[in-house]
Sequence to fold (239 residues):
Amino acid sequence: MAENATHNLHNLLTLRGALVRDPRAWSGYLTEAIETFADRADVVFASHHWPTWGHDNIVEYLSQQRDMYSYLHDQTLRLLNQGYTGVEIAEMFQMPPALDRAWHTHGYYGSVSHNVKAIYQRYMGWFDGNPGRLWPYPPEAIAPRYVEAMGGIDRVVELADKAIADGDFRWAATLLDHAVFTDSNHAAARQRYADTLEQLAYGAENATWRNFFLSGRRSCGMATSARRGRRRRRRSSTS
Fold:
């Protein structure tokens, strides 16, 4: 099956960047595979993960993979046609129970969130129709404007501390991203940003999200708590 059916939700758009893949065509290829090979197949396997044995198990597995990509496509378009943006659709999108119960439909590699946004991008592009977002400043120009509007970088760090205390790491990351783009040498902002990214990584079901969050922490010049613990143990063992 190459990578057309794997034991997780695949990427419709890789986080590293690529052309958006067509989930409707993907679903069609899986239907073709079922109709062509399922009746005479004893085992199905792909480039990654483990094989699936037995006719009934093969048909169930491939059918659920097919239905997953078809559902992502059709329901994203349904909500798009109701006027929702990609970000809004990603927040409200839920898999139906029949698919959610299957282990291999979960976002351990791809994710519902970024796949839904990819489908939106495939049909609508980057612009969501809001004229206030048609010509924004780039990050290094817009960040200091936000920071000034919020009362300065120390105030932004205070607001981020409250968000962290409330468990709202997504909002903390947004605030601290502006802070670090305003002053990349602000030690408190860099430390809070690194710690926030680590918390987001711990909460990520998706391995690629986790990697981006932890890589971002490392870009801030900070080791993860696990690496800090190993370093402390090494120092104590040599003292």
